[in-house]
Design goal:
Layout lengths: L7 E6 L14 H16 L3 E6 L7 H6 L4 H25 L4 E5 L8 E2 L2 H9 L3 E5 L9 H11 L4 E6 L4 E2 L11 E2 L1 E3 H6 L7 H9 L4 E5 L5 H6 L6 E4 L3
Helix pairs in contact: 1-3, 5-7
């Protein structure tokens, strides 16, 4: 049997990934599928950190564009990520995966405060750690939070789970002949403004040489295939 090529990963999920076509902001069936995928790699002994966006519930940037105070809107978006994190925790623990939610905004009744040393200790004990509330600061996206947490926990890679199967030269939904990349550099992503993660997140990963693997989330077994080193999706790394 193949062995994992990563010892520790940071999985970045968008809030939209939890939404269904049935007008449910959080679809229990989808969350259950994601939890089972995470549980599989946890059983392989891979340390897993997770960052989830909140866009299925509330988008701070969108609300700001419609006239809401940006700082207030971003704080509301952070709270949305906590709701998503608790939903994922619930389904992980139903499958007997030991999980901790750690929040960058203190709310001890529902989540542990984020303390890096405690997070590392949880990961060492093979607990899945879900990092909620972004960085705890406005004007920073959950992509940036994912890159930051990946650096802090010394992750081997950031796994960016999306609705498409990799990085394309253009939106494959709108441009039929868009080229899919199997490998691409951080610099090219930044220069061509490809919508992989925001520029801050890409720059953080580049400076710390943490590869980003972009793959399709809801294709059964994909997460495990990435962990085992199979050619899935697109890898973003330093130009060779």
């Amino acid at each position: 049997m193949k062995k994992p090529i990563f010892k520790r990963i940071l999985l970045k999920l968008s809030g939209e990934a939890l939404r269904s076509d049935r007008d449910l902001e959080i679809d229990p069936q989808i969350v259950q599928e994601i939890a089972r995928e995470i549980g599989e790699i946890n059983q392989l002994g891979v340390s897993v950190g997770v960052v989830i966006g909140g866009g299925n519930i509330f988008r701070g940037l969108s609300a700001s564009a419609r006239g809401m105070d940006r700082v207030t809107a971003d704080h509301m978006g952070m709270l949305a990520t906590v709701i998503n994190s608790l939903a994922l925790q619930d389904f992980l623990e139903r499958d007997e995966v030991v999980t901790r939610v750690m929040s960058a905004i203190r709310m001890e009744n529902v989540a542990e405060p984020y303390i890096r040393r405690k997070a590392l200790r949880h990961l060492e004990k093979n607990r899945v750690v879900i990092f909620a509330a972004g960085t705890g600061n406005p004007y920073f996206t959950t992509d940036s939070a994912a890159a930051l947490r990946a650096i802090e926990i010394k992750a081997d890679a950031v796994l960016k789970a999306t609705k498409v199967d990799g990085v394309y030269s253009a939106d494959p939904v709108k441009v039929k002949d868009a080229e899919k990349y199997s490998e691409i550099s951080y610099d090219t992503v930044l220069e061509e403004n490809l919508k992989v993660m925001d520029a801050t997140a890409i720059t953080l990963c580049r400076e710390n040489e943490i590869p980003i693997i972009v793959f399709k989330l809801l294709q059964k077994g994909n997460l495990k295939r990435v962990i085992l080193g199979e050619k899935v999706g697109t890898i973003v790394k330093r130009r060779t």
